[in-house]
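DM from R.C. (forwarded with permission)

"hey, sorry to bug you on a friday — could you get me a structure for this? deadline for the figure draft is monday and I only need the backbone to look sensible"
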Amino acid sequence: MSSMYLIGFIQTVFLSLLILTKKRLKLSDVFLFLFILVMGLRLLNIYFGNIGYYEVYPKIVRLIEFIYWPLFGPLLFLYIETITSTENKFRLIYLIHFIPGFYVIIVFAGFIYNNSGLSLNEYCQRGIFFQAGKYFWYYTTHIYFILSIIKLHRYRRSVENYFSSKKNVDLRWLLIMTYGFGLFLFTSMFFILTHDIIPVELPAVYYHFSWFVLVIYIFGIGYFGYRQKGVFDNDELNPERENQLELVERAQTYQPVRVTTEDLKTDQYIKTKLGKDEKEVILKNLKNCMKTEKPYLDSELDLKKLSEAINTTPNKLSQTINSTFNKNFFEFVNEYRIDEVKYKLTDPDFSQEKIMNIAYDCGFNSKSSFFSVFKRLTSQTPTEYKNKHGVSK
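My reply, with the result:
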């Protein structure tokens, strides 16, 4: 088992070096580096414990033991926060997220550096500040994991409000980062519960399982990070991607307003003061544009492009789509694309055309996205739909 921890630590060193050698180091890279570094230190700590270094350097081992856990969650949250933002500078407010970790170190400093022989439970019973420190130590990362999920899904909704495609947005990478870490948290909590609360004695090898999951997670970060452009390589963020982030950032600030009964009575929306007459003009222009010009065939279509095509603002267009069709921009555009695909799948002139070629021609730029949207809207796969409705030429 010791070799597994050492291999995991070596992998974190390798990934850390890849990040530090990037030509353009962004703030999100720094938080990712720290996140990986903390995981590596924890694995190194377990490795030293297994080979007997705990008795030789007990204070260092204890220090790492207390500092790594309340840092995991905040670092993951800050990575998501900064990678979904165009701002590339450190803000003082970020320091707030490290307060739980500092509090834990201060509260348990006496336990870390004192050789009085007190157990952790005895030490925590000395007062409310020590009890609070124990809860900060145990649960800070779990709370921040939940906050990361909320942040990620808010970002995802913002993407769907502004873009008709998700291919060039870091959703998959962020989902892997977040939910992969969640799997590690789940396995850790399971074995903590079976050890501390549920009277179940498991073989010692089972308690290494959660750390084995962490090692796999680290290698998963390396694999998927290598495939995700810009994470570990030296490719700089291109202007198009920067423009996308600016739009998403704006979308996160100005979310479309859900229409209430009171809004309908006043014929206005709260934020943009979109009146009934203006909304009807936008809706008429939108339907005419989608029917005659078919902008949805452009795989890079976004809210800004479409709003410019019908001479309105992104916010007004977003609110019109939201209130009229009860859909976000992503859903609205992709329904048109699916209708176009369905038409071509049943057209004899396209009977010999490959399904994915049709999908690309209709505005999709991702196979997985196309199949997912098609299945959701038709309850069939494209092949099943073609076999059922298609006409042989």
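R.C.: lifesaver. The first helix runs from residue 2 to 20.
me: no worries. The chain has 19 helices and no strands.
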